[in-house]
Structure formats: C-alpha cells, structure tokens
Amino acid sequence: MSYGGSSKSEICFKFYAPRVSRLEIVTTAERPELHDQFPDAFHAAWPELIFHDEVAKEYVGQVAKRFALYDVMVVEDGKLIAGGWGVPFAWSGAVGELPSGYDDALVLSISMNNEGTSPNTLSLMAIAVRPDHQGQGLAGVVISELRDRAVASGLTHVIAPVRPTMKAKYPLTTMEDFSKWLRADGLHLDPWIRTHQLLGARILSAASRSMVIVGTVSEWEEWTGMVFPQSGKYVVPDALDLVTIELGANIGTYIEPNLWMQHV
After folding, report:
1. Phi, psi of 180 (to 5 degrees)
2. C-beta of residue 149 within 8 angstroms of C-beta of residue 6
3. Domain count, the chain
4. What CATH number does the domain containing 22 carry?
C-alpha cells in the first residue's frame, strides 16, 4: 500500500516567546537515528501503566514500516521536540461503527493492510511533546501535520481516541459524563480535548474499552507504587478509571476509556 504526498517539510512556527524557530518535520523512517531520543523526549508524557498494553506491544512495531507517512517527528536543531503517529483504516463514518478504541483501531489498521483494504480514515494514535517544550503549541503542529497528510493522501476522515489529561482526577466519573463537562465558552474543561476542539475537532462518543492492561498484582504494585492488600477496585495514579485487583487469581485489570473525536 502506498500513499502520495511529500514525506518531508519545513515550517516556520512562532512561539509565545518573541522569536521564530525553524522547525523541521520528518518521518521516523527518514531520520531513524532520532529513535534514541524517544525515551528522554516522550516517556514522561504517559503513565507507566500505559506501556504495558499487550496489543500495543504486538502491533506498534509494525506502524513505522507500514504507515511511514503518518509517523512524524518535529526536530529543532537536531533535537527531537515533538512527534505523533496515526494509522489508516476503512470506516463508514457512522459513530456506531467506530472501533472500540486505541487497541481496536491498531488491530483494525494492520489487519486491513494485510487484506489490501483501501483506507479512508486516519486515526491519530499518539501525540507527544518533550517536557521542556510544552506550552508552545507543538501538539497542534503535529496534529495539523498528520491531518494535512491524511487529506493530501485522499483520506476523507481524521479521528482520534483522545486521552483527556484531567480525567485521571475523576476516575469515578464515566467518560460519557466527563465528555459533557464544558466551560462557559462552550469548550471542554479538559485542556487536551480543548486543543483538539480549537483545531476544529468535535466529540463523537466515548471509547469505553480503548485499552486493556492486565498484569500480576506485583506488577501493578511496581507500576503504581501502591500496595493492594485485598481484592477490589482501586484508584491508582494517572489511571482514567478504576483498576480491579483479584488477589486469588493474582491479576489486576485496567480498562481505559478514551474519547473519540473527529477532525475531518
């Protein structure tokens, strides 16, 4: 499967500080030497538990090879400062036929690619900004770049299973209810949802089973820095919902909800 359009571009981007920085946008395939910067640049963007999704472990490694056009990095003076990636698949456009979330979208894209199915949709899967470069609008640069590449390649939809940054403060609240929490100006309370909204995206529906993360009780204690002395449901740091611990089975299960949003 091939995609049209340029895979490399340069842009001028004005920061909030009174200066103009020259940013280069490249694919990871074009600049593989930057991979070594990934841990320092992006690991802190997500909680430890996110890195233990077995579906992601199995499939993410195929993304850069199969969908290189949608695996981009923002580079400044040779330093990786932001990046993001997405996966293409076919979607009818009906909300009721959306994938169940991140995991499902990832599996769907790889399976459709294997089958030779022509995609019409790009799902933005992850956007990250280096901690020392946050607050400068770089997430918007990455989102816009991926969206523009999708449109230029003939895809008709751009969606994203968004992980709201504020939701971890309200793990007892359903994503359906959280999605309705608006400010007086009509935008969402959550800053990450607002970032997408300010770029033209709208909320579609909750992705109630976006990721499923399973581990032993000791693994969960390591990932969270907590102790689980009895079976039950627990609030853990940075999780958007409760984690279920079953001591008898020596297993902990976390089902993460996200929020489907649509840019195009």
Report:
1. -100, 5
2. no
3. 1
4. 3.40.630.30
Q: Are strands 157-162 and 121-129 parallel, antiparallel or unpaired?
A: parallel
Where do we find the tokens 């994503």?
175
Asked if residue 174 belongs to a domain, the reply is yes
Amino acid letter for position 65: K
| Among candidate residues 50, 104, 257, the one with its CA nearest the CA of residue 174 | 257
Per-residue pLDDT of the chain (264 residues; tens, 9 = 90+): 222 333 333 333 333 333 345 889 999 889 999 988 988 888 888 999 999 999 999 999 999 889 999 999 999 999 999 999 999 999 999 999 999 999 999 999 999 999 999 999 999 999 999 999 999 999 999 999 999 999 999 999 999 999 999 999 999 999 999 999 999 999 999 999 999 999 999 999 999 999 999 999 999 999 999 999 999 999 999 999 999 999 999 999 999 999 999 999
Extended beta strands in 43-131, E state: 71-76, 79-89, 121-129
Q: How far is CA 119 from the centre of its chain?
A: 19
What does pTM read for this prediction? 0.90
